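Put briefly, the fold is written as integer tokens. The lines below illustrate.
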Amino acid sequence: MRVMGVDPGLTRCGLSVVDGGLGRKVTALDVDVVRTPPEMDLAHRLLQVADAAEHWMDTHKPDAVAIERVFSQHNVRTAMGTAQAGGVIALAAARRGIPVAFHTPSEVKAAVTGNGTADKAQVTAMVTRILGLQVAPKPADAADALALAICHCWRAPLLDRMAKAEAQAAAAQRRYTERLAAQQAQQLAAQQTPGRAARTQRPAEQRKAVGG
């Protein structure tokens, strides 16, 4: 599976591409950080981010795009910019028919380091080790993008099994509901049939009595 990892942001947006192999084998193919100047208007900053992400998708042709979910931030303006950057990238992927997955920071940290509260230094160190890199990826946005891609490579099979299990459970529930509705309809029809039979018999009995 080829996964494009995205650490969304307006000032710095981390992009990465990795190939997932057998087991937990992951190979880094590319990583970079897209930067946009704060003084540029929002629409053009988003356009630059989208253009870069689309170029990566068309060049590397990932099987999936993993984007960090904006979980919570004290700086509302920063959170909005992060969400907007992630949104335009998700849209670009959707237009190309590429599945998009969102992972929270704690999910990524837990997948890569085993600790959902790990700091950036720990994440960078584990990403460097997992990918067998000679030099740690910098800045932190690059390491985070790689961590997202690794996280998805390792979580995707589990997420796929969960989705299939949920679909099977929903189908079973739907079949049960349909059978129950059919049984209730049959019971209602059976209850109404004797009443109709009795009503049809009474006029016949009355005719016999008058004729007799």
Summary: The longest helix spans residues 140-211. The CA atoms of residues 140 and 198 lie 83 Å apart. The beta strands are 2-7, 12-20, 26-35, 64-68, 100-103. The radius of gyration is 30 Å.
